[in-house]
Write a structure and sequence with these properties.
The complex is a heterodimer of chains A (117) and B (110).
Chain A lengths: L2 E5 L3 E2 L5 E8 L8 E6 L5 E7 L6 E3 L7 E6 L4 E6 L8 E10 L2 E5 L3 E5 L1
Parallel strand pairs in A: 2-11
Antiparallel strand pairs in A: 1-3, 3-8, 4-5, 4-9, 5-6, 7-8, 9-10, 9-11
Chain B lengths: L8 E4 L5 E6 L10 E6 L6 E4 L13 E6 L2 E6 L8 E9 L4 E4 L3 E5 L1
Parallel strand pairs in B: 1-9
Antiparallel strand pairs in B: 2-6, 3-4, 3-7, 5-6, 7-8, 7-9
Classes of the chains: A mainly beta (117), B mainly beta (110).
Chain lengths: 117, 110
């Protein structure tokens, strides 16, 4: 079964750091670009970041650029999101997603909750 | 303020057709593919349409996508009460070098 499972969400103080993980199974992880998408309470989906198959290329939303770092370990089939200098507005459910094409993401995790307060 | 603009809500009766619009610009919809998602709070979003008009396996042909210029649309025919959800469009923005979502449209099946 194709599956993504996020972990690492927690309550953290403003200015703090947190690292999210996303464990992939059921598909060849190293063949696919991967994304992070978030949803703040009562708000819509917001794209956060993406990473190329081999980790050589990354992109970020302006709101997280310079504070968040996306990375991957293809040997461990795991995607990461290192979040530094966290702000209250980073409070959200964070989803990892497998890229099908462009921002067509066909497999999503169940989400992990980050609360900055 | 989302880069892509969607109506906050749409509604229609069971069995009818509804169209959800998504307006952008030349740096996103105008020159890139559009995807559409269905999302129920507390669950994982579901891909309905990718590459503007393609359906992933398992998505019924009641769902169709298209675009014209810098606007895209998602059509849902034969509405069912189970279609009630939030619907989002998304595209790559070449100027921002980032993905962008619309603000979401809440579909109510009356």
């Amino acid at each position: 079964e194709v599956q993504l499972v996020e972990s690492g969400g927690d309550l953290v103080q403003p200015g703090g750091s947190l690292k999210l993980s996303c464990a992939a199974s059921g598909f060849t992880f190293s063949n696919y670009w991967m994304h992070w998408v978030r949803q703040a309470p009562g708000k819509g989906l917001v794209w956060v970041s993406r990473i190329k198959t081999d980790g050589s290329r990354t992109n970020y939303a302006d709101s997280v650029k310079g504070r968040f770092t996306i990375s991957r370990d293809n040997a461990k089939n795991t995607l990461y999101l290192q979040m530094n200098s966290l702000r209250a507005e980073d409070t959200a459910v964070y989803y990892c997603a497998k890229d099908l094409h462009d921002v067509g993401m066909d497999v999503w995790g169940q989400g992990t909750t980050v609360t900055v307060s | 303020q989302s880069v892509l603009t969607q109506p906050p809500s749409v509604s229609a009766a069971p069995g009818q057709k509804v169209t959800i619009s998504c307006s952008g610009g030349s740096s996103n919809i105008g020159n890139n593919y559009v995807s559409w998602y269905r999302h129920l709070p507390g669950t994982a979003p579901k891909l309905l349409i990718f590459d503007t008009n393609k359906r992933p396996s398992g998505i019924p042909d009641r769902f169709s996508g298209s675009k014209s210029g810098t606007s895209a649309t998602l059509d849902i025919t034969g509405l069912q009460t189970g279609d009630e959800a939030d619907y989002y469009c998304a595209a790559w923005d070449s100027s921002l070098s980032a993905g962008v979502f619309g603000g979401g449209t809440k579909l109510t099946v009356l």
